[in-house]
C-alpha cells in the first residue's frame, strides 16, 4: 500500500476510497453502539427491576456506566496517540462487548452494576476512537461532511433507541437489550480489522499513571456530585461537600502534575490554542443543553400534552430531525468552502432562541407550537455538535489528535452530567413548590411518588390534582429551559471569539479529495 508523508513526517497510508467507505460504515456502527446503549436500557429498566429487584440501586445502573465512560475517555485518547489508533480502538470495542455479554447474564442488581461499569470502560474508547480515526483518515477540509454523517447517526440513535428498546424488551426479553450489541460489534471489528490500515506506533515514554489516577478521581467526584446532589443527598450535605473537596483537590493536583509529566495524559499545551479552548467550552454547553432537553421535553409532552410514553422517542423528532439536516448541511458547506466561523455563532444564537421559546410553553401550548420550538433548538445544536470536534481537531498537531478528540468528548460528557443534574434539581424543586401551592393536601404525596407521572397514571388522578400537576410540570420546564437559555449565552460569547483558521486538505474539486490522508492541523 502506498505511503504519503504528513506534515509532521509520519508515514500515512493512502486508503482506496472504497476501503475508506467500509471503514466509515464500521465506525458508524460503533458509534451507534455507543449512542444506542443508554437509550435502549432506559426503556428496559422497569422490566429489569421487576426481575432482578434492587430498586433502591436503580440509579447506579446508569451512574456506573457514566462514571466509567467519563473516567476512561481521556485515557483511551492518549493510548491511541502513544500506541496506535487501530489496536487501541479494537480493544475498546472488545471490552465493550465483554461488558455487554456479562450485563446480559447478570443474576442480580449488584452484578449488573459491576458489569455496566466494565461496559462503560469500553464505551469510553468508542466515541474517541471513531473521531480520532476520522481525524487520521480524512483531511480537515473533507472531514465536515463525514462528521455530519456521524451526527446523523447520533440523531437516529436518539430517535430509535427507546422504540428499539421497547420492542426488544417486549418480544425477546431485557437481556437482549445487551446481547444485541454483540453481532453489531463483531461486524464492526471484522471490517476494521480487514480494511483499516494505520501506521503502528511504539511509544518510548511510560504511561502517566499518576496523572491518570488523579484525573479519574477528579472526574468520578464531579460526576457523583451531579448524580447525587439534590437527589441522594442535599446539596449542602457533608457527603456532597466532601466530594467537591476531593474533586477540586484531585483536579488541581492533576493540572500541577501535567506540567511535569514526561508523557502527560492531557497535555496542557493544547489549551494554548484559543480555538481548542473555545470549542471545549462550546462542547460543554452543547452537552448541557442537549441532554437536558432530551430529558424534559418528553416529560412535558407526556404530562402536559397527554402524549403516550411509548412514543417518547418520536416526540423528539422535530428537534433531532432538524439537528440531522443542519449537521449534514454544515458538513457539506464546510467541505466545499473550508469555512466554519458562521456555524458556532449561528448555532449558539439559535440554541439561545430555541431554549427561550421552550421556556414559554405552558399548559395551553399545542404540539405543533412546541414542535416548532424544538426544531429551532435542533437547528442550533446541528450547527454545533460536529463542528466543535472538527475545529478542535484542526487546532492541534497530528500527534495530539487522540487527546483532542477525547478531551472534546469528555467536556461534552461532563456538560451532559451537569445539565441533567442542575436542570433536574431546578425542575423537581419547582414542581414540588407549585404542587404544594395548588394542591397542598395530596400534592406532596404525588411528588414523593414520582415527578414523572405518565399520561395513563395522570388519567387516574382527580381532575383538580391532575391540573395542578400539569401546571407544576409546565412551571418546572419553564425554569429548566430558561436556565438552559442563560447558560447557552456563554456558548454564544465563546463562538464570537473563534478565529477562522483555514482547514487543511483539498476541496472537492481537487484531485486529492479522493485520497483521504491524515494531515497536521494548524494551531491558533
UniProtKB/TrEMBL annotation:
InterPro entries in UniProt: EmrB-like (IPR004638), MFS (IPR011701), MFS_dom (IPR020846), MFS_trans_sf (IPR036259)
Protein name from the UniProt record: MFS transporter
Species annotation: Streptomyces cinnabarinus
Main subcellular location of this protein, as a coarse class: membrane
Gene3D superfamilies: MFS general substrate transporter like domains (1.20.1250.20), Multidrug resistance protein D (1.20.1720.10)
All copies of domain Major facilitator superfamily (MFS) profile, residue ranges: 23-503
Transmembrane segments: 22-45, 57-76, 88-107, 113-134, 146-164, 176-198, 210-231, 237-257, 278-300, 312-333, 340-359, 371-391, 479-498
Membrane topology listed for this record: Multi-pass membrane protein
Cell compartment(s), UniProt: Cell membrane
Keywords: Cell membrane, Membrane, Transmembrane, Transmembrane helix, Transport
Pfam short name (any one): MFS_1
Keyword Transport: yes
SUPFAM superfamilies: MFS general substrate transporter
Amino acid at each position: 500500500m502506498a505511503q504519503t508523508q504528513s506534515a509532521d513526517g509520519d508515514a500515512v497510508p493512502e486508503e482506496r476510497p472504497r476501503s475508506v467507505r467500509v471503514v466509515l460504515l464500521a465506525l458508524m456502527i460503533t458509534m451507534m453502539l455507543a449512542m444506542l446503549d443508554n437509550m435502549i436500557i432506559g426503556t428496559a429498566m422497569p422490566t429489569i427491576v421487576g426481575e432482578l429487584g434492587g430498586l433502591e440501586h436503580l440509579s447506579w445502573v446508569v451512574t456506573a456506566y457514566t462514571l466509567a465512560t467519563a473516567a476512561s475517555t481521556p485515557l483511551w485518547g492518549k493510548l491511541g496517540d502513544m500506541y496506535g489508533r487501530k489496536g487501541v480502538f479494537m480493544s475498546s470495542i472488545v471490552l465493550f462487548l465483554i461488558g455487554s455479554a456479562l450485563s446480559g447474564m447478570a443474576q442480580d442488581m449488584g452484578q449488573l452494576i459491576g458489569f455496566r461499569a466494565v461496559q462503560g470502560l469500553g464505551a469510553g474508547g468508542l466515541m474517541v476512537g471513531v473521531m480520532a480515526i476520522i481525524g487520521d483518515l480524512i483531511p480537515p477540509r473533507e472531514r465536515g461532511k463525514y462528521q455530519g454523517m456521524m451526527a446523523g447517526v447520533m440523531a437516529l440513535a436518539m430517535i430509535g433507541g427507546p422504540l428499539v428498546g421497547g420492542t426488544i424488551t417486549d418480544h425477546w426479553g431485557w437481556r437482549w437489550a445487551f446481547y444485541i450489541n454483540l453481532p453489531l460489534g463483531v461486524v464492526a471489528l471484522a471490517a476494521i480489522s480487514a480494511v483499516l490500515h494505520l501506521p503502528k506506533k511504539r511509544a518510548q515514554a511510560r504511561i502517566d499513571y499518576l496523572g491518570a489516577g488523579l484525573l479519574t478521581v477528579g472526574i468520578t467526584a464531579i460526576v457523583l456530585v451531579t448524580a447525587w446532589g439534590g437527589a441522594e443527598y442535599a446539596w449542602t450535605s457533608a457527603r456532597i461537600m466532601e466530594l467537591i473537596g476531593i474533586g477540586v483537590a484531585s483536579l488541581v493536583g492533576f493540572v500541577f502534575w501535567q506540567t511535569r509529566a514526561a508523557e502527560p495524559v492531557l497535555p496542557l499545551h493544547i489549551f494554548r490554542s484559543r480555538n481548542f479552548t473555545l470549542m471545549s467550552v462550546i462542547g460543554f454547553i452543547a452537552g448541557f443543553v442537549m441532554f437536558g432537553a432530551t430529558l424534559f421535553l418528553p416529560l412535558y409532552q407526556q404530562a402536559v400534552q397527554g402524549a403516550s410514553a411509548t412514543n417518547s422517542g418520536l416526540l423528539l423528532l422535530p428537534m433531532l430531525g432538524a439537528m440531522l439536516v443542519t449537521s449534514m448541511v454544515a458538513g457539506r458547506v464546510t467541505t466545499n468552502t473550508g469555512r466554519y466561523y458562521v456555524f458556532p455563532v449561528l448555532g449558539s444564537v439559535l440554541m439561545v432562541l430555541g431554549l427561550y421559546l421552550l421556556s414559554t410553553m405552558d399548559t395551553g401550548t399545542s404540539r405543533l407550537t412546541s414542535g416548532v420550538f424544538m426544531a429551532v433548538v435542533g437547528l442550533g445544536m446541528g450547527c454545533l455538535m460536529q463542528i466543535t470536534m472538527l475545529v478542535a481537531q484542526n487546532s492541534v498537531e497530528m500527534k495530539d489528535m487522540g487527546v483532542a478528540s477525547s478531551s472534546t468528548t469528555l467536556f461534552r460528557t461532563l456538560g451532559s452530567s451537569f445539565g441533567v443534574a442542575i436542570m433536574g434539581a431546578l425542575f423537581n424543586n419547582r414542581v414540588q413548590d407549585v404542587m404544594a401551592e395548588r394542591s397542598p393536601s395530596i400534592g406532596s404525596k404525588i411528588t414523593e411518588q414520582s415527578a414523572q407521572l405518565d399520561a395513563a397514571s395522570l388519567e387516574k388522578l382527580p381532575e383538580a390534582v391532575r391540573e395542578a400537576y400539569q401546571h407544576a410540570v409546565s412551571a418546572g420546564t419553564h425554569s429548566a429551559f430558561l436556565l438552559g437559555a442563560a447558560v447557552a449565552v456563554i456558548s454564544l460569547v465563546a463562538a464570537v471569539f473563534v478565529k477562522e483558521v483555514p482547514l487543511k486538505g483539498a476541496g472537492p474539486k481537487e484531485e486529492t479529495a479522493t485520497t483521504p490522508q491524515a494531515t497536521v492541523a494548524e494551531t491558533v
